[in-house]
Q: What sequence folds into this?
């Protein structure tokens, strides 16, 4: 066992919840390592004090007060803030390209992330496996529109008149992004001439960190979930965009550039 | 279909009573998380209520790809961070924390002989909570989740949506800062 691991297991060791095998390994390490022994000795009183903080009961009347707030929230539920998000996004794109824009959410496949070109799915494969969300399917009922109409954004102001609506919008927006931060984006372009450079430029414009760059693969670190919108919008200017359905576990996104 | 799954479906369909039953399991945990994040019962109640109102408003979008508990905790974390952003003034960084310790901003407990054990202990806990409250929020949340509420590294990584390695290094740094801070009274 390395000293780094001792740090990670120290608390369970002190609480006595470490599996026997690991406990033996850790004890063996402590025999020969004075610095880890000191670490554990110093950590013990702190952890004991923290573990001794007892859970406090809910304040009296908590549930009644919450009930009132939930009832109030029910009464002023604003219309479809969640959907407006999509209209706004699509409308921007429609205005730019007068093209219908779709996001494909594809099933995870094995071999994802490999550098090996042959393991990459073909455009056709993705389309077959995809559930497709288009502008029209995300629109509120009764507001069938074409792309020209989308440019006018007639309903976008609706929720902005109300602070509560905005609060809800923010919460939904945040949760939505957190749930949907994809781990990979597939960008289908006609030719892969300067695409890589352009992606780097976009990344720099939005303060995303470029973690790695290969010929057809660029890994970015996203620090602000809001950047995803900007990124997808900008990428859609370069080509056809698909995202995978694997939520990114570490705020990094790999963009795969595919020629079609 | 388990009880929770059924309640979840009903809550998603807009049944307030089902929603309240669904969240009753989590209220105390979330309240205590907010309490340790703020070190104030009043703020903790406000934030906890805010958390469940947000959960209620967005329950329809809950996909079930993560545990309900994880999702609620994540909202709680966001609510606490938002609150911190709105009142940034009272928080200091870890390096500042150490300097402030040198300036003895924290009142030391009296060293007078033989007060009862539990008195010392509760005094120590009060000081500890002050120290935790002065950590940056990202350190505060990992230390609360790990050392007070005893979640696994994986669960914390899910809740905070940060990589496992970051969770571990934040916990180690937070403990180092706290050890430094509590050295004087432990
Ligand atoms: Zn060691």
A:
């Amino acid at each position: 066992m390395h000293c780094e691991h001792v740090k990670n297991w120290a608390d369970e060791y002190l609480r006595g919840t470490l599996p026997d095998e690991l406990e033996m390994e850790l004890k063996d390490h402590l025999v020969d390592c004075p610095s880890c022994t000191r670490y554990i000795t110093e950590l013990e009183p702190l952890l004991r004090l923290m573990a001794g903080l007892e859970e406090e009961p809910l304040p009296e009347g908590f549930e009644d007060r919450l009930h009132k707030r939930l009832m109030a929230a029910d009464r002023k539920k604003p219309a479809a803030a969640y959907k407006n998000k999509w209209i706004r996004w699509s409308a921007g794109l429609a205005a730019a390209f007068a093209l219908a824009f779709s996001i494909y959410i594809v099933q995870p496949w094995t071999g994802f992330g490999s550098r090996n070109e042959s393991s990459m799915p073909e455009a056709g494969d993705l389309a077959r496996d995809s559930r497709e969300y288009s502008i029209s399917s995300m629109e509120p009922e009764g507001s069938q529109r074409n792309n020209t109409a989308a440019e006018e954004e007639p309903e976008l102001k609706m929720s902005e008149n109300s602070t509560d609506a905005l609060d809800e919008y923010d919460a939904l927006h945040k949760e939505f992004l957190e749930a949907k931060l994809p781990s990979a984006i597939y960008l289908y372009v006609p030719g892969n001439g300067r695409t890589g450079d352009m992606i780097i430029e976009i990344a720099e414009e939005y303060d995303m960190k470029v973690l790695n760059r290969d010929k057809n693969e660029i890994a970015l670190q996203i620090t602000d979930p809001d950047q995803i919108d900007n990124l997808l919008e900008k990428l859609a200017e370069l080509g056809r965009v698909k995202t995978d359905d694997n939520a990114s576990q570490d705020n990094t996104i790999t963009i795969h550039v595919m020629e079609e | 279909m388990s009880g929770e799954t059924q309640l979840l479906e009903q809550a998603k369909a807009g049944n307030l009573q089902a929603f309240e039953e669904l969240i009753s399991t989590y209220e105390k945990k979330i309240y205590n998380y907010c309490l340790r994040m703020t070190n104030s019962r009043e703020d903790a109640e406000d934030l906890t209520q805010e958390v469940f109102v947000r959960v209620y408003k967005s329950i329809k979008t809950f996909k079930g790809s993560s545990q309900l508990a994880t999702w609620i905790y994540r909202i709680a974390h966001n609510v606490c961070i938002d609150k911190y952003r709105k009142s940034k003034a009272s928080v200091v960084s870890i390096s500042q924390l150490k300097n402030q310790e040198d300036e003895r901003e924290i009142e030391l407990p009296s060293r007078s002989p033989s007060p009862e054990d539990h008195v010392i202990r509760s005094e120590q806990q009060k000081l500890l909570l002050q120290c935790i409250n002065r950590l940056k929020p990202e350190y505060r949340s990992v230390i609360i989740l790990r050392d007070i509420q005893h979640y696994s590294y994986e669960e914390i990584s899910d809740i905070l949506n940060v990589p496992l390695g970051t969770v571990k290094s934040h916990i180690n740094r937070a403990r180092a800062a706290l050890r430094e801070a509590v050295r004087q009274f432990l």
User: Anything to note?
Assistant: Chain A has three domains: 3-51, 79-177, 180-259.
